[in-house]
């Protein structure tokens, strides 16, 4: 996303460049202050004239004036630069936040569309007896059944429908579709007599 000025988005290297520039300005300011120190420590506000109002002869006036002028200019530059650094960082963070929100929204939309494409379940497996045909086929507790042979959410009335399908399919593989952990899973189930009760368990 470009900022309102139509300029390109700020990058991390832009910020690093600004910080390098800030360091350079700080070094220049320090050098100017050291120059003033070297001129009998005149600093920024010491008078440049003697008691009689004549220019001081013990210091290099030109150098002092130039250094003072440079310090004022550099400090203004420094202030402006710090504002730029702050704005650049703000933009970077805002963009990161925006990107994160967009990623989250996309992930959510994807999850929603997956949910929408999953068929409706009409029954839930609440128990699977170990060693039973259901257990052998890989059915698991909490599997939501969306298709059981010819039975689906559209024609399912009660569990008797499933019992009828099971009795007619003894010894023959049945196609069973379940939703497990948000995904569609196909299970091949063959109803048959076993040690336990019923043809499925």
TrEMBL record:
UniProt xrefs under Pfam families: Nas2_N (PF18265), PDZ_6 (PF17820)
Any one of the GO BP annotations: proteasome regulatory particle assembly
Entry keyword set: Chaperone, Coiled coil
Coiled coil feature spans: 71-115
SUPFAM superfamilies noted in UniProt: PDZ domain-like (SSF50156)
Residue ranges constituting the PDZ domain according to the UniProt record: 90-182
Entry GO terms, CC: cytoplasm; nucleus
General function of this protein: Acts as a chaperone during the assembly of the 26S proteasome, specifically of the base subcomplex of the PA700/19S regulatory complex (RC). During the base subcomplex assembly is part of an intermediate PSMD9:PSMC6:PSMC3 module, also known as modulator trimer complex; PSMD9 is released during the further base assembly process.
Family affiliation: Belongs to the proteasome subunit p27 family.
PANTHER family referenced in this protein's UniProt entry, alphabetically: 26S PROTEASOME NON-ATPASE REGULATORY SUBUNIT 9
Quaternary structure, from the entry: Interacts with PSMC3. Part of a transient complex (modulator) containing PSMD9, PSMC6 and PSMC3 formed during the assembly of the 26S proteasome.
Name used for this protein in its record: 26S proteasome non-ATPase regulatory subunit 9
Species, as recorded: Alaudala cheleensis
Gene (UniProt): Psmd9
């Amino acid at each position: 996303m470009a900022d309102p000025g139509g300029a390109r988005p700020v990058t991390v290297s832009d910020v690093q460049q600004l910080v390098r520039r800030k360091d350079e300005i700080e070094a220049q300011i320090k050098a100017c202050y050291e120059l003033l120190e070297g001129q009998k420590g005149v600093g920024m506000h010491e008078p440049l004239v003697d008691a009689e109002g004549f220019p001081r002869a013990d210091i290099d006036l030109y150098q002092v004036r130039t250094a003072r002028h440079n310090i004022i200019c550099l400090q203004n530059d420094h202030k402006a630069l710090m504002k730029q650094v702050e704005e650049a960082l703000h933009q970077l963070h805002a963009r990161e936040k925006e990107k994160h929100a967009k990623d989250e929204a996309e992930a959510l939309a994807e999850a929603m569309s997956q949910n929408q494409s999953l068929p409706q379940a009409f029954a839930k497996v609440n128990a699977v007896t170990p060693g039973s045909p259901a257990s052998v086929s890989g059915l698991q507790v909490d599997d939501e059944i969306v298709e059981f042979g010819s039975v689906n959410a559209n024609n399912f009335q009660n569990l008797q429908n499933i019992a009828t399908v099971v009795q007619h399919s003894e010894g023959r593989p049945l196609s069973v579709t379940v939703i497990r952990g948000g995904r569609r899973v196909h299970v091949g189930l063959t109803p048959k007599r076993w040690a336990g009760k019923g043809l499925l368990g």
